């Protein structure tokens, strides 16, 4: 006889106490897009990237809808309670073994895009861009939740601020090619996709974001998780906010972010400048 699931009764109060107030929150915005009452806000600004409760009646730490039984925010959170085991169980029907520190996987492959343009525009070979373009052109997905950089200033300078974006064709996929190293809650592009009537989406992001999908599915969060059909998690060791440009690149190396055209951080900083340096 199959074991019955424990009744899920956890709401914003528990999410705030266990994830947000303790610093476990990664700013993925899963709770924001899952909230059916639109009472969870989010500031996509340096030093913030954290959800907060909008209703004033019970303050920042509790929710009237949660007291009435709404549990969507905790069902969507990939840092709440036993999320990692739940995600593994949902995807692979088993827990990872102690020797599977990198998670459960089928193959480890060294790949690159075969399209020369995609390869050149990618960060490390253009694989993710190539996958998204192929899936869009072959009807596997009709959109991708990804990120773009803010539009350049009037002088052509780069802002380097990453913002959530919806990609629906080759051009918009390539506009998001390459690494940012500044945080973007790509899930916040979901409402735009829903508004456009898209129903088969890829979610691209760091693992803290792409854990949202299997956690939502396992905890049965409802319709908000249904459009995500493809999860592409990017390996990372750390994500920064905009302060890295002033406090490190400018203060220590005298490199202006407006003059940077590409960066690569893998143990060392590699910066390509507009003048060719």
Automatic annotation (TrEMBL):
<dbReference type="GO" id="GO:0052592">
    <property type="term" value="F:oxidoreductase activity, acting on CH or CH2 groups, with an iron-sulfur protein as acceptor"/>
</dbReference>
<dbReference type="InterPro" id="IPR017896">
    <property type="entry name" value="4Fe4S_Fe-S-bd"/>
</dbReference>
<dbReference type="InterPro" id="IPR007525">
    <property type="entry name" value="FrhB_FdhB_C"/>
</dbReference>
<protein>
    <recommendedName>
        <fullName>4Fe-4S ferredoxin-type domain-containing protein</fullName>
    </recommendedName>
</protein>
<dbReference type="Pfam" id="PF04432">
    <property type="entry name" value="FrhB_FdhB_C"/>
</dbReference>
<dbReference type="InterPro" id="IPR045220">
    <property type="entry name" value="FRHB/FDHB/HCAR-like"/>
</dbReference>
<dbReference type="Pfam" id="PF04422">
    <property type="entry name" value="FrhB_FdhB_N"/>
</dbReference>
<dbReference type="InterPro" id="IPR007516">
    <property type="entry name" value="Co_F420_Hydgase/DH_bsu_N"/>
</dbReference>
<feature type="domain" description="4Fe-4S ferredoxin-type">
    <location>
        <begin position="16"/>
        <end position="45"/>
    </location>
</feature>
<dbReference type="InterPro" id="IPR017900">
    <property type="entry name" value="4Fe4S_Fe_S_CS"/>
</dbReference>
<dbReference type="Pfam" id="PF00037">
    <property type="entry name" value="Fer4"/>
</dbReference>
